[in-house]
Write a structure and sequence with these properties.
By secondary structure, this protein is mainly alpha-helical. It has a domain at 79-117 and 148-197. 41% of the residues lie in helices and 8% in strands. The chain has two helices and two strands. It has helices at 78-112, 148-199; strands at 121-128, 139-146. It has a two-stranded antiparallel sheet with strand order 1-2. The chain is rod-shaped, with a radius of gyration of 34 Å. The N and C termini lie far apart (90 Å).
Length: 211
């Protein structure tokens, strides 16, 4: 069973409910990655990887990838591929613009130092009795006073939430970049196929001279 990861914002309190709230912790540890398909072997649909007990690898004991099976001829519709890449680039452009606008807002929040209420105040109104002696009566006074409770909570909250915002923003940026790489590779595949297809065209044979 996997041990649950404690959130840096909502960390559980010590058992028994005693003590003060725990201080914010760090983010989750980076995961350890492992390839499910090893040594370049990718099983066919319904197949099994070498050593899994689901069939033979078809290769040598070292686990080298078996030769690919034969297949029928295929064609590439470059017009459809180009349309897909162009549409994807248009959508990616919209996402980039939205991301940049969001990044501007997040940067402003992190740099402000006051967004979460670090300088919160309370509006108060009261009556000053100093005017009673002169026959004026109570004088209304009003003003803003620091809200120390909110300011203290905000000072503890900001160092926790600001890194969460930037981490989420980075995740969005990574996803957009990955999609951009995918589109670029589609474009490269189309360009390579188009160049190969164009280079395979045989030139026209000159007509034979007539006697």
């Amino acid at each position: 069973m996997v041990t649950p990861i404690n959130s840096p914002i909502h960390a559980p309190k010590p058992e028994g409910g005693g003590g003060s709230d725990p201080s914010p912790g760090g983010g989750a540890a980076d995961p350890t990655l492992e390839m499910l398909w090893k040594n370049g072997y990718v099983p066919g649909f319904g197949g099994a990887a070498p050593g899994s007990g689901g069939g033979s690898s078809g290769g040598d004991p070292a686990g080298a990838a078996p030769p690919p099976p034969g297949h029928a001829a295929f064609t590439v519709d470059l017009a459809t591929l180009y349309t897909a890449v162009s549409a994807g680039a248009t959508e990616a452009s919209h996402v980039v613009d939205a991301y940049n606008a969001l990044k501007t807002r997040v940067d402003a929040v992190v740099a402000s130092g006051t967004f979460w209420g670090q300088q919160a105040t309370n509006f108060r109104a009261w009556y000053d009795n100093s005017g009673i002696a002169g026959g004026v009566g109570p004088i209304r006074r009003e003003g803003d006073f620091p809200d120390h409770g909110v300011q203290q909570a905000a000072a503890q909250f900001a160092p926790v939430i600001n890194p969460e915002l930037t981490t989420a923003l980075r995740s969005v940026a990574d996803a957009v970049e990955l999609y951009g790489v995918y589109l670029a590779r589609l474009d490269q595949a189309g360009q390579a196929y188009a160049a190969a297809d164009y280079g395979s065209i045989l030139p026209e044979v000159a007509p034979r001279p007539k006697s």
